[in-house]
Batch of 2 targets.
Target 1
Amino acid sequence: MDPLSSKPPGLAYAAVLTANADAGRRRAEESILLLGAVMPFDTSMRDAAVARERAEREAARREAFERTVSALEEIARETGLGRAYLFGSVVRPGWFGRNSDVDIAVEDADDSLSLAVRLSRTIGREVHVVPLDDSAVAEHARREGIEWTPES
């Protein structure tokens, strides 16, 4: 009887040829290995934990985005900051994590470093600020980012 023809449905088998030495002669024996589902198991606890983690990361992303926009509004009132683009993981659901930074490309920023420091302190995350006028990242920021302009 062919042992592979009597396998239960839904289970994966593999025939493995192994060589055994016995009394000075070699013989081959077929071993059938059950791959994968020896016993079905419940993944609902893991699935729930993954869903919770995703929801927490998304909430953190939204909070970082909203705090950044609020901080940009405040800074714009004081400094006349113009258009900016938020880009990177802060605008991409599923990409933002616990240690994610916030990426911003700005027009008319006199001092990108001071702006980055101020934003970082305000929102509680590392912020990278790049000028739109001379940055290799500018095209990407315009294409993939979310445009922000000061409220009038």
Target 2
Amino acid sequence: MRHEDTKALRHSGIEAQKMATVGAIKTFRDLTVWQKGMVLAKEVYKATSLMPDVERFGLTSQMRRASVSIPSNIAEGYARQGRVEYIRFLKMARGSLAELRTQLLLGQDLGFLRINSELGSLLDEVERLLAGLIRSLRVPKPMQILVQSEKLP
């Protein structure tokens, strides 16, 4: 197979998968994971508003930044041109989620806040949605074989 043919095939396969994955999604605002990330960020702002003033520039600020980073990275990744970059930004959002979970646990252990079941469920749901979206965007096995075969002499 000629290089131009494999390139065209790979491009059409990516476009077809993108259309199947995206469906009726026109902007990042249509993504359920982004919507849930926004709800999570608002809940974190509410929870941290009750923390001691001495933590305003410490743990409170870190938790708020991590929570805002989740939907922000989802949106930025969606706006990027390629699947690889999109996945990279989704993984950053997942990292921010882990960071936020750690900070919330620390805040709870220090007695600054209480993680209610709603907040815990929201963290779990966003994590699950991110993992599913990342998994759906990965290159399928037949496409990986095609891409790898291009590297052979």
